[in-house]
Specification:
212 residues, globular, two-stranded antiparallel ribbon, 8 helices
C-alpha cells in the first residue's frame, strides 16, 4: 500500500492527510465547545439540545475548519509549485489544548503548520507565506455571498465564515513569532501592508455594519 497520494497534481503523504483530518475535526470540536459554553455544565444539567450541537459542529467544520484547512493547503501548494518538499504536520499537544480550552469557554488554537524545505528565494518564501492569508480573504468573500443572499442556517454559516476568515487573515499577518506576517514583511513591506490593511479594515467594516 502506498504512503503517498496525488490529488490535483499535488502529492500528499498518508500521515499528512491524517494530520489534516485530525486537525480539522479537533478545531471543529473546539469551536463547537466554545460556542456552546459552558458545555460541561450544560451536559451535567442535561440542557444541551443534540440537534443544536450537531448544527454548531457542522457550522464549525464548514467555517473554522475550512478556513484553517485551505489556509494550510495554500501554503503547501504554493511551496510545491516553487519546487519545495512540503507537508502539513499537526501539533498534537496544541490540538489537545484547543479542545480543552474550548470546553473551558476559551479558544486557544495552534493546530500545526506546513513545513517545507529546499532551495527558495526570499520572494518565493514570501509568496508561500502570504498565500495562506490571501486564501482566507478570498474565502471571506465567498462566504459573504450566502451571508447576503441566504437566510437561516446558510446565512449564519456565511456570517461566521466571513468573520472567521477575516480574523485568520489578520491574525496570521501579525509580524511576529512563527506567523506568516514576519516572513511577508521581510520580503515586501508593500505586500505586507496591503494584505494586513485589507484584512483589518474589512474585518472592522463587517463588524460595524453587520454585527454591532
Amino acid at each position: 500500500m502506498t504512503d503517498m497520494y496525488e490529488i490535483g497534481g499535488i502529492r500528499f503523504y498518508r500521515q499528512e492527510l491524517r494530520d489534516l483530518a485530525i486537525a480539522w475535526v479537533a478545531l471543529g470540536l473546539a469551536f463547537t465547545f466554545f460556542l456552546e459554553a459552558p458545555f460541561v455544565e450544560q451536559v451535567r444539567r442535561g440542557a444541551l439540545d443534540p440537534g443544536d450541537v450537531a448544527g454548531v459542529f457542522a457550522m464549525s467544520m464548514a467555517t473554522v475548519g475550512t478556513g484553517f484547512l485551505l489556509h494550510e493547503l495554500a501554503h503547501k501548494v504554493t511551496a510545491v509549485r516553487f519546487g519545495q518538499v512540503a507537508a502539513f504536520r499537526a501539533n498534537g499537544p496544541m490540538l489537545a489544548v484547543a479542545v480543552v480550552s474550548g470546553l473551558a469557554g476559551l479558544l486557544v488554537a495552534a493546530p500545526g503548520a506546513v513545513y517545507h524545505r529546499g532551495r527558495i528565494t526570499a520572494r518565493q518564501n514570501g509568496i508561500v507565506a502570504v498565500a495562506g492569508p490571501v486564501t482566507n480573504l478570498v474565502l471571506a468573500a465567498v462566504f459573504f455571498v450566502p451571508f447576503v443572499l441566504g437566510s437561516g442556517f446558510a446565512g449564519e454559516i456565511g456570517r461566521m465564515g466571513v468573520l472567521i476568515n477575516l480574523f485568520l487573515a489578520a491574525f496570521n499577518m501579525i509580524p511576529g513569532g512563527p506567523l506568516d506576517g514576519r516572513t511577508v514583511l521581510n520580503w515586501s513591506k508593500a505586500v505586507f501592508a496591503v494584505v494586513l490593511v485589507t484584512s483589518v479594515v474589512s474585518g472592522a467594516a463587517f463588524l460595524l455594519v453587520f454585527v454591532f
